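Data card: per-record layout.
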Amino acid sequence: MAEQTEFDEDDIDRLRLAIGRSARALRLSTPDTGLTPTQSTVLFTIVRVGPIGVADLAAAENLNPTMLSRVIGLLAERGLVVRTPDPDDGRSALLAATPAGRELREGARRSRAATLRVHLDHLDPEQLATLHGALPILEALAQDLKGARN
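The structure for this 150-residue chain is written out next.
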């Protein structure tokens, strides 16, 4: 069988739907945290890369300052993040996750990983090898897509 090297519109739609449906299913597999997807994403970024400045976080998440300010306020109110003065710039703040924020993120990560593990276990070795080989490509695609938003 010849290897297909181009994606037509149908292939692109199939890939987009598969990625979107997979992401949604994994989000839904997470116990309810009471956070919106945007709030979760911001918290998870703060946990992963924090402490982080507000401007850097806005750029990383492609959020406008007003929206980000509201999200940060809610996360701080819930005790999931703290703001501290930036030692390099007294006019700015750094955001860091609290132990509760890190615990919430880790619980969500474990839940999503367990869900994915169950479904990966249903694949045969050849499918797993193909999917494993596609990981660097999917990671690069995700990075390129993120860069295209900015």
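Known properties of this structure: DSSP finds six helices and three strands in the chain. Helices lie at 9-28, 37-49, 54-61, 65-77, 99-120, 125-149.

See the next section for split statistics.
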